[in-house]
């Protein structure tokens, strides 16, 4: 039997929860105990009664969760007060995004806990199955957020994405043709915008062209093509991802300055440091700011705006791994699954994700080496 813990998320305006009642039911039916902090699921529409009905034990506060649990299941990276409650031998399973966050990395190393990051777990094709559902949500939300920011009362230029008969639609540029980019394009096309996508992978561009046809323009990303597209845009979506690593700063401050006043940029890569030089993380309570007349939307937990949808989608992806960790124990589950193993970022005071080591100038070892030690 494993004791799992589900604390209330405390990142500003974060309403998702690590486990749904449905997921808890799967664990309790297998004989495991699940401690859920009172109110943890309220923001996503799950009250305490829904958890107790499936066998969860409701506890009063986060210290009770962290003290009692062997495996803590969260959504967002642990905040400083949560990191202080982690202990050696305990396992944390959540999004971490360590590369742009030296303070969190330092605290997790000092805790002695085993920390598995959703965003670096792999699938058989090299994809990121636990990041994908939130990337889908964030891609779709990026267009909603961008369209809202383009409205005059919100500081934008007063441009309607789809235009109307006789008035041209907005120019939307999507940087990166991965999961975020594809879902952003679907939304922008659906709203009638003119969409351009840039990527350095010609296979990706070919696939996008085949999928969307003449509804989009595809450009191989160079400094020149990127600059031209950004400057001519009403809305730019930053959808760049290097798994586990800091996002490259592709859009320079000079490009931002050259954009039309009232244009909007949405940096979906902000949880990995952002891909605009002018980006800084914001929250849902204060999502935008303006630099040189350009509205910036840089919320680091965008899917938190739709917690019911996001929580369900995330649990569909994470549940089988949560079950494996509970059933087999952390070490055996990691060693038995070469796709879960890359999710190990910190173990027993050692960093096990090389891209984080490169970003922060820290020594790292492989997950297999850490577990063998």
Specify Rg, calculated over alpha carbons: 21 Å
**Helix/strand/pairing category:** alpha/beta
CATH fold description of the largest domain:
Rossmann fold
- Biggest pleated sheet: 8 strands, mixed
Average pLDDT number: 97
CATH A-level architecture of the largest domain: 3-Layer(aba) Sandwich
Q: Which CATH class of the largest domain?
A: Alpha Beta
- Would you identify the regions where 5 or more consecutive residues have pLDDT less than 50? none
Span of the ends, CA to CA: 25 Å
Shape by Cα distribution: globular
How many helices in DSSP terms?
A: 14
- SSE run: EHEHEHEHEHEHEHEHEHEHEEEHHEEHH
In the CATH hierarchy, what is the superfamily of the largest domain? NAD(P)-binding Rossmann-like Domain
Helix content: 25-40%
Overall description:
The protein is an alpha/beta fold. The protein folds into two domains: 3-121 and 306-372, 3-Layer(aba) Sandwich (Rossmann fold), CATH 3.40.50; 132-305, NAD(P)-binding Rossmann-like Domain (Rossmann fold), CATH 3.40.50. Helices cover 35% and strands 16% of the residues. The protein is built from 14 helices and 15 strands. It has helices at residues 21-28, 48-52, 62-68, 80-83, 102-111, 132-149, 179-190, 202-212, 223-231, 253-258, 307-328, 330-336, 354-360, 367-372, and strands at residues 3-6, 33-37, 57-59, 71-73, 91-94, 114-117, 171-175, 194-199, 216-220, 235-238, 264-267, 288-291, 294-297, 344-347, 350-351. Strands 3-2-1-4-5-6-14-15 form an eight-stranded mixed beta sheet, with helices on both faces. Strands 9-8-7-10-11-13-12 form a seven-stranded mixed beta sheet, sandwiched between helices. Strand 2, helix 2 and strand 3 (57-59) form a beta-alpha-beta unit. The chain starts with a strand and ends with a helix. The mean pLDDT is 97.
